[in-house]
Amino acid sequence: MLRPALSRLVATCLLTACLAASAGAQDSAGGTRAVVELFTSQGCSSCPPADALLTDLAERSDVVALAYHVDYWDYIGWEDTFGAKGFSDRQRDYAKSWGSSRIFTPQMVINGAKGVVGSKRNLVQSEVANAHLPVAVAVTRKDDVLTVAVPGLEGQGNATVWLVTYIDQAHVAIERGENAGKTMVYTHVVTGRQLLGAWEAEEGASFKLPLQQVLSQPGSGLAILVQQDRQNLPGTIIGAAAYEP
Predict the structure, then answer these.
(1) DSSP string, 30-89
(2) 8 Å CB contact between 67 and 184
(3) 81, 171 contact by CB (below 8 A)
(4) What is the pTM assigned to this prediction?
(5) Beta pairing, strands 183-199 & 159-173
(6) DSSP states along 106-122
(7) Would residue 23 be called left, alpha or beta, if left means φ above 0 and alpha means ψ between -120 and 50 degrees?
(8) Are 168 and 62 in contact (CB under 8 A)?
(9) Where are the domains of the chain?
(10) What is the pLDDT of residues 15-53, one digit of tens each?
(11) Could you name the CATH architecture of 24-243?
């Protein structure tokens, strides 16, 4: 759920799309090579370069870029307006799945398989260039209904399909903490995650989503992630697509 302060920040969102767009069919399918999940904080002085890099990555048609704002830096003087414990827990779960107890910001996770320092632009770009998602995900809009189609692919382990909602972009004036006095641009800020269901390698999966319910505010978008589990922890992402009205 969004914090109360977030409802005020929504007004500052830079709208790149609007729910009043044409009701005709629109598609988002295939071509995605990488999901880049940035774990960041408004209270982290090392994070702005990574936030800027994610903004660049979000412009690419072959990348699904998502920013998870963690809450574990809130104590040092500035409470992240997008931060949530659940996002910190997701980062911790990634670390556990890799046999580590260390988490840090900024960290970018590529396809759920590897974490790198998010401010190392050349390293991140190299990881993205070498990334691959074997399963194509199609998101099709007809009228006010989105259809998510994920075909089967033999040889892959079963996975779970997730709906991730995000704010396209927002400006935040930071008043205290390590970034005090800066006005930051944050892109594809995750606002929620919802389990859609299971994906079976032999049969695939399909879901229908009421557009007005999953995207309830202007300037928002969604991503579909097909992610394998690793002993009840997040594993490799094998398919993904993003959709903005």
Answers:
(1) S---EEEEEEE-TT-TT-HHHHHHHHHHHT-TTEEEEEEEPSTTGGGS---TT--HHHHH
(2) no
(3) no
(4) 0.88
(5) antiparallel
(6) SEEEETTTEEEETT-HH
(7) alpha
(8) no
(9) 24-243
(10) 333 333 333 334 444 589 999 999 999 999 999 999 999
(11) Sandwich (2.60)
